[in-house]
Amino acid sequence: MRQIITVSRQIGTDGETVAKRVADTLGFNYLDRRLLTEQAQRLGINIYEAEICDISEDDYRIRGLAESIFSDTKVITVVESPSMGSSLIQTSRTLNEETCINIEGTIIKELAKRGRLVVVGRGGQALLKDRSDALHVKIIAPNEYRVKKLIASRKINEQEAARIIKDRDTATAQYLRRFYKLDWDDNGYYSMIINMAGVSVAQAVSCIANLARSE
Fold this sequence. Notes:
Elements: E1 4-9, H1 15-26, E2 29-30, H2 33-43, H3 47-52, E3 73-80, E4 88-95, H4 97-114, E5 117-120, H5 124-127, E6 134-140, H6 143-154, H7 158-180, E7 192-195, H8 201-213
Parallel strand pairs: 1-5, 1-6, 2-5, 6-7
Antiparallel strand pairs: 3-4
Helix pairs in contact: 1-8, 2-4, 6-7
C-alpha cells in the first residue's frame, strides 16, 4: 500500500475535497496547519516560524522578479531562558523565502517518514518525488467547468471567476518553477491525472484510494 499521497490541483476542481475524503477513506493524516505545527514542535522548530513558513502556491503572488514573498519578515520568538528561571526573553530573527521553504520542506519530509499522509500542494510532488511509496495525483478540469464551479461556490460573476483562475494558475506555475524547478505543465511527475469534468468527487476518491491500496 502506498504510504504517501500528494495531490496537485487546479482551482475550481474540488481538489481539496477529494484529498480530504481520500485521507478519511484510507485513515491517513491530512496535512494542515495543525499537523504541521505539531511536527514542528517534535523537531524543535519554533511553531510561530512554522506557521509563517507554511506557504503554498495558493498564497503565492509574484509582482517582480527579485521580490521576496515574505519581504524579509521579522519573527519575534518568545523562549524560556534557563538562566532566568521561569522568566521569558524575546529574541528575533529575519526570515526570507529560502529559509521558509527549507523549514516547510523539512517538516513535510519528516512527516512523510511516518507514512499514511496526504499532502495537498506545497510542492509535495517535488519534495517527495524520490519516495517509492508515494502516489502523486494531479486534479484538473477545463476552464469552463472551473468557472462554473467558482461562480457557484463564491457567488461571483463569470469575469471575476475567470480572473481568479488565471491568477491562480499563473501563481501555481511560478511557485513550482521558482522553488522546486518544476514545470506545472509536465505531467510526467504524476502517477494519476483526473479530469473532474468526467467524474464525480466520489468516483475520484475511489480511483485514488484503490490505486493507493494496490501493491
